[in-house]
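Sharing a chain and its predicted structure for anyone who wants a worked example. Both blocks are below, sequence first, tokens second.
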Amino acid sequence: MQKTRLLTGILMTLAAAIVIVYFYPHTEADSFNYEQGRPWNYAKLIAPFDIEIYPDSLTSQRLRDSLDAHYEPVFDFDKSAADSIIAALPDGPARTRDLISAKLRSFYRRGVVDNNIRQEITSGKLKSIRVPDDKEHNVLNTMNTEALLSPLEIYRDLDASITDSAGRHFLSVARLETLLTPNITLNPEENKKVYNSFLAQLEGARGVIQQGQTIIDKGMIITPQDYVNLQTYEHKLATFHTKQTRHEYLVWTGQFLYVVTLLTALLLYIYNYCPEMMRTRRSIIFLLSCITVSFLLCVGLDKALTDGIYLVPLTIVPILILVFFNARTAIYVSLVLTLIAAGITSYTLEFIFLQFCATIGAVNSLRELRNRAQLLRTSLVVAGCYLVSYTALELLMNGSFSGFSWRTVAFLAINSALTSVTYVMMFLVERIFGFVSVVTLVELADINNPLLKKLSDDCPGTFNHSMAVSNLASDAAQYIGANVQLVRAGALYHDIGKMKNPAFFTENQHGVNPHDTLSPEQSARIIIAHVTDGVKLADKNGLPDVIKNFIREHHGRGLAKYFYFTECNRHPETKTDPAPYTYPGPDPQSKETSVLMMADAVEAASRSLKEHTPEAIRDLVNRIIDGQIADGLHNQSTLEFKDIAPIKQAFIKRLGTIYHSRISYPAAPGSNTQEKTSAPSTEQTAPKIQ
């Protein structure tokens, strides 16, 4: 059975590992996670080949701005444009025509540009341009723009130079404003080509990191230039590798082995130190689900946002495990989750340290969750742990606050606030996995609960017995480190099945015993039925499985000895079959149900003691518990031998307090009677002496 459970756990672990590795970032084996302005967290990086040094983004932008400020655009210069305009002039006075022609040739030799270009020239934005050489068109010559004119300026000059009426008429007829066009125009294609060539020169390699030189050393802050060098290295590395040398499947294999190793370590821990969790598949499924779902959230947010992984409230996982299991398991699971998620972060050391501190703070601030206010306090503790640990890391790695990121701090603050969502998650986990939180146990242990109220009304003797057993079992559970709240709640409900036939149980009888008219086997059947009746009633009222376990296991597979021995004594000549007198069980499977079985038997037997001396109580406790152990009723329980002595001590101490002897009062003064009364309890008022 145990091997089957282990095999099931292994299969579920492998399934979880496959899901996690499938969503793992499958980067190249030689790629790195890094960020500008943060420390280089890997070992010293040595160049395996020559690496060109390109300018960083800031330098590149500065060079681009400088180029834009001083760049001389490329224009075409049409020196025959004046002849075309002159040929288009109409016939007119020779003197006027010659004057216009001479001026046009002079202006167009200097150069004419459109009005927009002329405005840039006059504003000082365009001081020079490049034009093709007259002889070698592939050669560009720099040309000063001060002498360049616009068509409008040429027209105004001609208009001012011609004053006679004939010339004015000719100027009007010639419509020069339509003929005057620029002869220096921008060449878009050539201009773009020249601009890009200059840009390529500026942004080209400015040096070389030779093979064997250090690209960056461990712990160094990544400057903008380092960032560009690392990107160049990764790009060259990707092109350098061939299909034969880039074994991507080995990366997958490494990730799978990494995840499986961590999950296997968790499974071995549970198998060796928390065997009760191996008894049910849902416990393993719950733990693996917490790890897998949290990891997927980390992957999703890390892809969606830079440093988005810090938004994931991973402390919810240890808090949930603490609520439903124990602190040691909570820390262990959180460590495994942190190490798995660290594989997708840029700064592994930082992430692991932050999550470790937050987990320790959360677990130690929340020993037992009873109300929502505790979660708010835990959120503040987690926020404080994040802030202190993040500050410590920055000072450790940078020696200053230069790398302190308020964005990261804000993410961690949101993360801490989301921890309070655990209260809602608790109820979802209870519904999905059937676990019971301390909060639910506290609610169940409220004696105003309708089912307990009905037990009190219908079976007052059984209710008082359950209360006494609850107190006894709670004391013992506290002595051995068991779940006190679970024992207290389970003890209150363990005998609810007696409500079906309350008069058949001694504590509810008032002088009439219905068993007197029944055979021992019939009586045993009715008494034993309170277990199955209790389970049915628990199902009807929606009690959780852990409470039903107390109902099923508080008698285990033990005998209804009173009726069995009665039948044996009636028919000593035949062997009595014990089956009709045996409870359905099973025997206790946990510490808590074992403690309840012991407390139930001890409390019931203590009522039959004639004297409640310390010796009598001690003998009773030892006899009953030792008898149960001898009968093998606790063989399937997680109870350890070392727990027996503390349990006995707890029972003896509590019963001694309940049945402590009282002093006797003397008779009242002036009274003839010799009657003495017992001392009143602390709630009573002492009689006044006259």
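Comments welcome. Confidence is low (pLDDT under 50) at residues 673-690.
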